[in-house]
Amino acid sequence: MILTVTLNTALDLTYRVPRLDVHGSHQVREVVQRPGGKGLNVARVLAALGHDTVVTGFAGGLTGRELRELLADEGDITDELVPTRGSTRRTVGVVDEAGGASTQFNEPGPHISPEEWSAFRDAYARLLRERGAQAVALCGSLPPGVPVGAYAQLTREAHAAGVPVVLDTSGEPLRRGLAARPDLVKPNAGELAGITGTTEPLRAARAAQRRGAHSVAASLGPEGMLLVTPDGTWQAGPPRSLTGNPTGAGDSAVAGLLSGLVEGLPWPDRLARAVALSAATVRAPTAGEFDEEVHADLLSRVTVEKSGEPLPE
């Protein structure tokens, strides 16, 4: 079983419009509504890859109830979300069909009380020890009320249970999470620069390692991904540029890396899977999905190149 943690779950709404006019009125062509938040997107891709997947985090209010009903309808992900008195947030993505770009609006999420945080910690410990978790993904932003060092706490608890951790967050939660020595962190280049102070991805990834990360996978947008591990450094990109909705592409990359970890794949194979899934997600209509034909085509053609000499420190 793979456990994904989404402390700030969301009901994702995707609107598709012919052309986005910032100051105009729009006729929406299509509305798609899905359970969301980074960890739920990761779980959906993992399930599509054939992995037994459990999701936990918080859900509350009418929006949270609707999220859980939609999740139950999907049928292939186990729901272990913890109730909260506040209402689960919504996110709205507006896809401009003319240019292919997506504009995102994210609500902040409900306030989590100390009692609710304690209840989550108890549920998390039970899932780690009683459900036989093979790996944990800690994903996304923190809702108000959750301690900024939450991911560091959860990483240490997973390690105490002998479970490896993939961390995908940003800002201060990422900075503090590094100190708990997660097995892999997956920031994008901007997030990595934000915590290390350098915009050169390879140098920034090595700085993140010095701060505690065992390995670093840095998303480079259309250029693919950089992977820095104790066993070597690799970079890979898709064989062709793809247009579409990039929302959720990073989550699919996390699913590729996480599934590769559980399956014991070599690092280059994990990286190739992550890049192919990420690119195939751009061609899917909503986050948490990927175009299976595009993925199969790209997987055999992703070129993984090993890095040369290390940069001077």
Write the layout of secondary structure elements.
Blueprint: E1 2-6, E2 10-17, E3 30-36, H1 38-48, E4 53-60, H2 61-74, E5 78-79, E6 82-84, E7 89-96, E8 102-106, H3 114-130, E9 135-139, H4 150-160, E10 165-168, H5 171-178, E11 184-185, H6 189-196, H7 201-210, E12 216-219, E13 225-229, E14 232-237, H8 249-263, H9 267-282, H10 292-299, E15 303-306
Parallel strand pairs: 1-4, 1-9, 2-7, 4-5, 4-6, 9-10, 10-11
Antiparallel strand pairs: 2-3, 7-8, 12-13, 13-14, 14-15
Helix pairs in contact: 1-8, 4-5, 6-7, 8-9, 9-10
What does this structure look like?
The structure is a single chain. 38% of the residues lie in helices and 24% in strands. It has ten helices and 15 strands. The strands form three sheets. Strands 1, 4, 5, 6, 9, 10 and 11 form a seven-stranded parallel beta sheet that branches. A hairpin with a 2-residue loop joins strand 13 and strand 14. The C terminus is likely disordered.
Any key phrases for this structure?
313 residues, alpha/beta, 7-stranded parallel β-sheet, 4-stranded mixed β-sheet, 15 strands, 24% strand, disordered C terminus
Tell me the fraction of residues in β-strands, as a range.
15-25%
Alpha-beta classification: alpha/beta
Overall form: globular
Rounded mean pLDDT is 90
Distance between the termini: 40 Å
Q: Which range best describes the helical content: under 10%, 10-25%, 25-40%, 40-55%, 55-70% or over 70%?
A: 25-40%
Number of helices in the DSSP assignment: 10
Cα radius of gyration in angstroms? 19 Å
Beta strand count: 15
Could you describe the largest sheet, including whether it forms a barrel? Answer: 7 strands, parallel
Q: Element order, helices and strands?
A: EEEHEHEEEEHEHEHEHHEEEHHHE
Q: Low-confidence parts lasting 5 or more residues at pLDDT below 50?
A: 309-313
